Request: fold
Amino acid sequence: MEQFLSRRAASITPYQAGEQPQGSDIIKLNTNENPYPPSPKALAVLQSFGGEKLRLYPKPDGGVLKSAVAEVYGFDEDYVFCGNGSDEVLGLAFQAFFDENIVFPDITYSFYPVWADLFSISYKTVPLRDDFTVPVNELVGDGVVLANPNAPTGIALSLAEIERILQNNSDHVVIIDEAYASFGAGSVASLVPKNPNLLVVSTLSKSHSLAGLRVAFALGQPHLIDGLVRIKDSFNSYPLDMIAQEAAAAALRDTEYCAAMSAKVVSTRERTAQQLGELGFTVLPSHANFVFASHPQVSAAALKSYLSEHGIYVRHFNKPRIYDFLRITMGTDEQMDALIESIKGFVYSVSC
Amino acid sequence: MEQFLSRRAASITPYQAGEQPQGSDIIKLNTNENPYPPSPKALAVLQSFGGEKLRLYPKPDGGVLKSAVAEVYGFDEDYVFCGNGSDEVLGLAFQAFFDENIVFPDITYSFYPVWADLFSISYKTVPLRDDFTVPVNELVGDGVVLANPNAPTGIALSLAEIERILQNNSDHVVIIDEAYASFGAGSVASLVPKNPNLLVVSTLSKSHSLAGLRVAFALGQPHLIDGLVRIKDSFNSYPLDMIAQEAAAAALRDTEYCAAMSAKVVSTRERTAQQLGELGFTVLPSHANFVFASHPQVSAAALKSYLSEHGIYVRHFNKPRIYDFLRITMGTDEQMDALIESIKGFVYSVSC
Reply:
């Protein structure tokens, strides 16, 4: 029944998200979810939400959330775009700003080449250095997209390095995808006022424990926001439902709670990295809510299978340069203790 | 700052949704919202929703809603696709099934040409007959999209006429966009098992009073659903948030409530059409939750302005063939009484 597919549908290779195993006794460390609940203020919004008004359309620009983003980041509202998760915002941005010859690292969020293919945007990838850092001056093209911290490595660039990329590409849009910025790297939003080519994309999925609500936003100068709106209004006018707008706004304004939960995740990450190091793993220096680790004597694929048999899910990418690595999301300390114990069992059995 | 826009962003003309005026004392009859609240069963789901689980990603296929759709329509789950409003589902379907030379009526949902332009799909429009009915046998192309009932006319085709379109285009996908099917026309989903080229797109915005929740679905044979999934998974993996999935599923299963509210809307429509007729309006025979009406002595644009000055919002399309018409959404009987009184004031002043 291929006959009914468009040429683009027949030719693309869709993105594959991490598996979503169900069950209360599993330990799910494979899709970078936050182990802590959303802000109590967001939960209070849900409790008091008056469902009768759902008969009406929501604000098409995600206005309720937009106000909160503007307030928290200290921008005017015309610097803010809201969308249905950062995948949607990035997918719209690719359409709004890119035609051809864009660049991104060879090892990064694997959705970037998928959007490029879907929208017929040619791209070239720039190899990360051997230590998986980004060769900043090589990222030059007719458009750049960069995750900072990068995924799945967790390695972050400094503000000065991001500025260099912006300067090296001053005639083209540079998208900084900072899904993991709250876990130590910090946002590059402060660069927006001086850089008309910078679009910062952020999501509440990880930092605010709201993966289930599908909320993200972009920050950029108004001409870039207008470009995003042009594409949104040519695809789906109202991507953010009323409840998501209100709950996300409350979560975003609760900056104290976000900081406290992020600090807990960072503390767990440092502890876990040390424990993995003691077991012989190489752990890349992460500023995200995950670590990327490999072991000289252990097959990452085999360890992943072993862990899933024991109810612990981590992510393995069957790709060149990184097939020896596992990406491990930070759970609670208790969950990470269970992970370490399980890994010990496997490592010792392999080493003996 | 046009320099940063892609060629597609610079060249498109976005869809313009109806305005969303705020205020409790206005009568909003311009965006086809349902005047009655969502099912109490959906509201109960909102009340009891445990927000803690929002830290996790939702089911990527909208699984909770998918089960409900399959159950209510009597299909297997692989006949169902769920999305963020019918605009998203239609936008994905255009990408999944159309390359070039698609057809739709000259007067129809004005998003169709916008998607075609955004995704570089050539199209031709088939003029409606003078009475605004669809010339069924002329709808032949490498893909068809048809709103049934049509918008903004409200006129519906019969099941037999839809079958003829399917047969006339057996090698290409025919999308039937039935956003307004619950108000008398009925669904054409019964044609899905026998027609491998039929994709039915439905939304809960109007029929289930859930415009604020952004929920829609498509029904088709599994090869078409697979095509939609390929595009979705190349654009935005998780478009439906957890709350929307659960509340929409409860609303959809409450078929009795939907039927009762739809019957009220239909009764108001028949009453309103008669009253408008008595005032000298021509009212097209509607099977939707709106009427499309024109008056031989009254400028539609002027009446629209007059009504909005009196806090009543209706929709006027400044387009060839229909600029003498207003599209009026059905509110409650009380709201329609206020509309009729207001129109009387204007019509009498113009006629005298």
In short: The longest strand of chain A covers residues 198-203.
